[in-house]
Predict the structure.
Amino acid sequence: MADVQIRKIEAYELPVLEAAVADFLANARGSRIKRCKRVLLKPNLLGAFAPERAVTTHPAVLEALIRYFLDRGKEVWIGDSPGGSVNADSVWKTCGLLDLAERYPVKLVNLSTAGFRELEHAGISLKVSEVFWQCGIVINVAKYKTHGMMAFTGALKNLYGLIPGLVKTEYHGRYPNNRDFAAMLLALYALTGPKVNYSFIDGITGMDGVGPSAGRVRNFGLLLGSTSIPALDYIAARMLGFSLRDVPYLLPALHLDGILPSRVSVPTSFRHFQIPDADIKAVKFSADLLKLVPRFARHGFNKVYSIQLRVSTRCRKCGICVQSCPVQAISAATATRFPSINQNKCIKCMCCHEMCPHRAIDIHKSFVARMVSS
Ligand code: SF4
Ligand code: SF4
């Protein structure tokens, strides 16, 4: 049996969050939390997005956790590796972390530059930040969002931030479709999950539509938590309207921990709860389409039939997408031209779409994709 805690919280009010966090953590894996001194809070800091954009973990949730652990005499580190080559200082500042570090004795750690350990699981070799292994207590603090490539992003996908930024870009090239990427995420979970003491999903505000950065901001009014990462993601994804098959890593992750979906428990009032009007159609369709295609043909299918990403006139020519592309499919802007995407090279990893701070990369469905998703 795996328990998932859920609380209705409508706004980022610190006293309410502090009470919820303390309540949830009473269920955390106890002995290491008591024994160890250093805590790593691992938020989702995808890029330099203001908290109201609902792309990154809200600083008020982190503040509640900081206060909880400082009160118990712990040393608090907050670490993530923002995507691609994004400047960490601008991420700390825009996401509200710099303000926290000025008000509390906490350390901000850029996991992209702090060294890594190379580990292997099921034939998949991964570089995981050294900082993760240096902290006795790890608290995963994810954001509640849809995801253009994986359909849903919650606690398990948030572990991807333990991989240094530019290495993440490389892995997107190495695992170009969502099934291979899911296998890689599963290996990452097998290697790191047992060390995570507790996971939260900040869904007080979250995102539907085509997340994880350019979707629709929603006030879901939910904070979720569990010691089990797959159970937590399963419940969060289900409340958004996804089935287990829609999110390719969910069922294997539950199996890995020997958890039956029917044995995941939630508070009685949330047993049949669904987020109203959740817009998940756009992110569900590509997974649905891929299921129909034999594995050997997926790469070619991805290129021709599913979607095309195109730079719109909202572009500010910042160059972030060019640096984020794992297969160098985006040519840089010039004085007279926006960046352009070479559709023959593009592997639809969605990194540019995720990383663009101006929501300037649009997703266009092919005729076939429109037919299937209509
Ligand atoms: S598309 Fe977005 S990320 Fe790329 S250059 Fe334009 S504004 Fe920057
Ligand atoms: S153009 Fe965008 S979606 Fe295509 S491979 Fe590059 S980063 Fe990924």
About this structure: The first helix runs from residue 14 to 25. Residues 2-270 form a domain with the Rossmann fold fold (CATH 3.40.50.11440). The radius of gyration is 20 Å.
